[in-house]
Amino acid sequence: MIWVAIAGSALATYLVRALPVALTVRARLPPAASRYLDALPIAIIAALVGPAVIAPAGALTHGAEPVAASLVVAAVAWRRSLLAGVIVGVIAVALLRLL
Amino acid sequence: MIVGTTFGVVARQAGLEPIEIAAMSLLIFAGASQFAFVQLWTGGAPAALIVTTVLFLNSRHLLMATSLRPHLQRVSLPRRLAAAFVLTDEAFAMATGYVRRGGVSLRYYVTFAVSLYVMWNLSTIVGLVVGNAIGEPRRFGIDFAITATFLAIVVLAVRRPIDAAVAVLAAAIAGGLALAGASTVAVIGGGALAPILAVAVRR
Hints:
The complex is a heterodimer of chains A (about 100) and B (about 200).
Chain A: H1 2-22, H2 31-54, H3 64-79, H4 82-98
Helix pairs in contact in A: 3-4
Chain B: H1 2-13, H2 18-27, H3 31-42, H4 47-57, H5 59-68, H6 77-85, H7 89-100, H8 106-133, H9 145-157, H10 161-179, H11 183-193, H12 195-200
Helix pairs in contact in B: 1-2, 1-3, 1-8, 2-8, 3-4, 4-11, 5-7, 7-8, 10-11
C-alpha cells in the first residue's frame, strides 16, 4: 500500500512539473484561478498543522502543542530560520508535556 | 540541507522503513509533500487521499513550469522532460533570476537543480541514520518536529497579510474537522476551502 502511495505521489509531482514544458499550448489563467492556486500551498501546509496542534492523537489538546506552536511561530518570525523553529518546537513541547 | 535531514529523522521516527524513505526522496523530491505524506500515512489516510494532497500541494509547479516554458523554445522535448524532474521552488527562483539577467543556457539551471537533488537525497540518508539512533520519540518531543517544520514553512512563505489569514483559516478548518472526527478529509478540506478567501479578498 505504501508503495502505491509513493508511486502515485511521484507521478503527481512529476506531472505538474512536466506537463507545462511538454505542451506547447499557451493557456492564460483567469486572475481568480491564479490567486486561488497562489494561496493553495500555504493553505494545505497550514491545514496539516491545524489538527496536529488542536487535536494531536485525535483528542483535544491539553495545551502543550498550541503553546509550543506559538513559540515556533515567534522563533521563525524572529530568526527567519526553519531550524530555529524546529529546535524551539521540539524542546518546548517536550518540556510542556512534563507539566 | 537541514530540511532533508529533518525529513529523514521524522519519517524514520514515524515508523517508515529506510528503503521507503529513500525512495520518497529519490522519486517524489518535494519537501513539503514528503512531510505531508508521512503525516497522512501515519494517520492512516488511504493512498488516494495522500496522492491528491500531494497533487494539490505541488500545483504551484504548474505555474512555475508554465512561466519557464517560453525560455525553453530551443530545447528538445526529452531534455525539457528531464529538466522538469528537478524543478523545485529554489531552482525556479534561481532560473527566473537568471533569465531576467539575460541568461540563456540550460546548463546553469541543470547544474543548480541537480545539486539540490543530490543534497536532498544525501541529507535524507543522514536523517535516516540519526532517526534510527533516537528511541522513544514522543518523550523527547521529536514527534512535534514535523508540525514545527510545517509551521516554519508557512511563516517563511507568508509575504502579505492575506497569506497569514488564509493560513490561519486553513488550520482552523482542518483542526475543526479533525476534532469533529473527520480527520481523513481535514487537510484537503482546510487546504481547498481557505484559498477561496484569497480569491474573495482583492488586494
